[in-house]
Amino acid sequence: MAKQSFEEAMARLEKITRELEAGDLSLELSLKKFDEGVKLAGFCNQRLGEAESKVALLLDRNGVPGPQFLSPAATETETDPEQ
Q: Could you state, in order of their start, the residue ranges of all structural domains in the chain?
């Protein structure tokens, strides 16, 4: 895969998705497009993970608390007035 930006990869992935959803491709071409889409999705997921790590690092460096991830049960307990 040539060096590309996250935005370019997402645009290509969206195009592939539309083509596959249309159902007009041969099975062989559909498999090729699907394979390319899986690779693009992996690339995008990796880039998002890197960006998330950088944001967390920057927040921590500036003395701002990092993101807090709560389980659904913890969120319900905090927002449920009956508990």
A: 6-79
By C-alpha distance, which of 68, 44, 45 is closest to 56?
68
Contact 78, 72 (CB under 8 A): no
Higher pLDDT, 33 or 74: 33
> How many Cα atoms sit within 13 Å of 61 on the Cβ side?
6
Joined together, the tokens standing for residue 39 give 């690779």
Whether pTM exceeds 0.90: no
* Integer CA distances (angstroms), 29 to 2, 21, 34, 56, in order: 20, 13, 8, 40
The architecture that CATH gives domain 6-79 is Orthogonal Bundle (1.10)
